[in-house]
Design a protein that fits this description.
Elements (H helix, E strand, L loop, with lengths): L11 H19 L12 H5 L9 H27 L3 H28 L2 H21 L9
């Protein structure tokens, strides 16, 4: 049985994502903007249609798809951090960018524990091509994840 060990604790990524959400909610509240429910973007669901169903291929593909999602977050956060004029928002987006980059690396590292490096690289390239097609058909919504 495969065991994916984390050097920083089993749930660190989930806890960090929750802290990000709390920081964003605080930033919205400070500006008098209520948190509202958004219609989910089809991006992640469509990306995940390429995940194979048998293990360990399913695990490998899931980790690589999560890495791609984090990479897109990095791109958007880099743009946001460079575009805002409010120092506290620039700091927030910059901090989120650093975290998303770390999450991206974590998913790719875990994928490297599931499969040989060449297999993981080849599969990442295939999933990235699928992702490009998904993004090309995605609605132009103002979202962190397309």
């Amino acid at each position: 049985m495969l065991h994916l060990a984390s050097t920083t604790g089993d749930a660190w990524l989930a806890r960090e994502e929750l802290r990000h959400f709390e920081r964003v909610v605080d930033a919205l509240a400070a500006r008098g903007i209520p948190l509202g429910r958004q219609v989910p973007s089809p991006y992640a669901a469509q990306l995940m249609t390429a995940v194979r169903t048998e293990e360990p291929a399913r695990l490998l593909d899931t980790l690589l798809c999560m890495g791609l999602i984090e990479a897109r977050s990095c791109e958007r956060l880099r743009l946001l951090a460079g575009a805002v004029t409010e120092p506290d928002l620039a700091e927030l987006f910059g901090g989120l960018l650093a975290s998303e980059a770390r999450h991206h690396r974590t998913y790719l590292t875990l994928a490297g524990q599931v499969a040989p490096a060449a297999e993981a690289r080849d599969r990442l390239a295939a999933l990235a091509r699928h992702e490009a097609a998904v993004i090309a058909q995605a609605p132009a919504w103002p979202r962190l994840h397309t």
